[in-house]
Each structure stands twice: as structure tokens, then as C-alpha cells.
Design the sequence.
């Protein structure tokens, strides 16, 4: 059940889920998450997945989720890399790519000579001075900075780890630029998933473990949102939310319990 139900609960007809921290942490599925997802589907709730994960390609994400017991259709997965790739193609850009090697094949069709934009994903341990300094020099020649997220950290199997955001801020500071973010909390990524569902934002609930990227981002996009106390959640994160109406639950199973409990919303229409 919800520790605090989200505003607009009666209107919810579909659910968006973050991946890391909601369905799994590290290489392990969170207890009860797979069963909770099955119950959502059985109750008729369409589900889409919105992630800032940029260390892996979409196909690898789908394979790894399947190995953890989650069946996800690739077309149901909204990612920042896909959004940036579409924009690069539409504008005929030549990117300098700072990407995890696993993600590089998804951008192999783009020209990269004489780059006119810096595109930045989470390179993990591949982040080094040479990569950052090369990007800095391109930015100093007037190129914009497009990034796949601004998350500060995430939880791996052995603890919290730096995410993309700190490296983005370093380049912003050095080159005196402002990055354009294509990942959460940018409303465009949420709205793309909502449009795929054929619903209005207020009819969709976003569930995530990041109060800024997931919860505030969804509320800013006009959706309902619920923070779960798994993954990167830290005690008191719920008090950092910049918008009213956020829900709070222990984990995804508790969210599903709340959605399916008639006592929580006796007048809601079934999805």
C-alpha cells in the first residue's frame, strides 16, 4: 500500500516505470518486482519504461531485463539515446560522441568528422581527462552540449556510484555552456512514452527511485508520480520534491497493491 497516495490516483489508467532501482539493483531483481509487474499487466494496466540508463544499448537492456525475469518489448522502452539520435538525424549534425562502448553501435550511422555538437552519455570508467578535454575544446569553438541525463548518482550492487551529471556539470563550468538534457527530468521523454500509450499525462503514473529525475520530472510533465524507497532512495528524499502531490511507497509491490485496492479509489474507472 502507499505510505502517501499520489494525487490524481482515481484517474490512473497506465504506469511508467524507471528500471534501475525500481525493478532491479545491480545484477539482481528487487524482491517482489517481477510479480508486481505481472499483477499490473493482469489487471489491465499498460506499462512503459522510461530510463536514463546510457551504459547499454536498447537491445542489451531488453536481454538483461529478460535474464532478471522481466519481459520488456523494445518498443516500450523510452530512452534518452534514442531521443538524441533522432534529433541528430533530423538536424544533420556531426557529433563528438562521449559514450559507453556498448552504446556506440546505435550511433554508428552518423557522421562524426569536424563535430558540431558534443553528445554525452555515461561512459563509466572510460571517463578520463583526454575525453573530457577533447569535448571541452569542441564546446569552446561554439558547439552545443547535448546530454542523456543529469543524474548525480545511482545504486549498483556494491553501493552508490557517480552517474553522468557530475561530468556534465564539469564541462558546463569549464566551457560556460548550459547542457540540453534529453533524459529525465526533461518532459519530452515522459511525453513520448505517454503519447505511445494514447493517453493524457494526468492518466499516467510514473514510479521511480529518483526524486528529481523521476518524481519532479513527471509532475512537471503533468503526470502523477510516486517515489519508491528502493534503489538510490535516501531517507528524507520525499521532502526534497519541488512539486506537490507526489506519492510515496516502500517498493513497486506496494504501489501495485495501492493501485489495485478498491478502498483507495472506489470510484475509478478500470483501465
Sequence:
Amino acid at each position: 500500500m502507499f505510505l502517501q497516495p499520489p494525487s490524481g490516483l482515481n484517474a490512473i489508467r497506465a504506469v511508467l516505470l524507471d528500471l534501475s532501482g525500481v525493478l532491479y539493483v545491480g545484477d539482481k531483481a528487487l524482491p517482489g518486482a517481477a510479480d508486481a509487474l505481472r499483477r499490473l499487466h493482469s489487471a489491465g494496466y499498460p506499462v512503459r519504461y522510461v530510463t536514463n540508463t546510457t551504459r547499454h544499448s536498447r537491445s542489451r537492456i531488453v536481454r538483461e531485463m529478460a535474464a532478471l525475469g522481466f519481459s520488456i518489448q523494445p518498443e516500450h522502452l523510452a530512452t534518452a539515446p534514442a531521443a538524441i539520435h533522432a534529433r541528430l538525424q533530423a538536424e544533420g549534425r556531426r557529433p563528438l560522441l562521449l559514450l559507453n562502448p556498448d552504446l556506440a553501435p546505435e550511433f554508428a550511422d552518423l557522421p562524426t568528422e569536424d563535430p558540431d555538437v558534443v553528445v554525452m552519455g555515461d561512459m563509466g570508467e572510460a571517463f578520463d581527462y583526454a575525453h573530457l578535454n577533447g569535448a571541452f575544446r569542441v564546446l569552446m569553438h561554439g558547439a552545443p552540449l547535448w546530454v542523456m541525463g543529469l543524474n548525480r548518482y545511482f545504486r549498483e550492487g556494491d553501493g552508490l556510484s557517480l552517474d553522468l551529471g557530475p561530468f556534465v556539470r564539469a564541462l558546463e563550468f569549464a566551457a560556460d555552456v548550459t547542457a540540453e538534457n534529453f533524459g529525465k527530468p526533461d518532459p519530452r521523454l515522459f511525453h513520448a512514452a505517454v503519447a505511445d500509450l494514447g493517453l493524457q499525462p494526468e492518466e499516467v503514473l510514473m514510479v521511480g527511485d529518483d526524486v528529481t529525475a523521476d518524481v519532479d520530472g513527471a509532475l512537471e510533465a503533468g503526470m502523477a508520480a510516486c517515489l519508491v524507497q528502493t534503489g538510490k532512495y535516501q531517507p528524507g528524499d520525499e521532502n526534497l520534491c519541488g512539486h506537490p502531490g507526489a506519492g510515496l511507497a516502500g517498493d513497486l509491490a506496494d504501489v501495485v497493491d495501492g493501485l489495485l485496492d478498491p478502498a483507495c479509489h472506489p470510484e475509478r474507472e478500470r483501465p
Observations:
- DSSP finds eight helices and 15 strands in the chain.
- The CA atoms of residues 24 and 30 lie 5 Å apart.
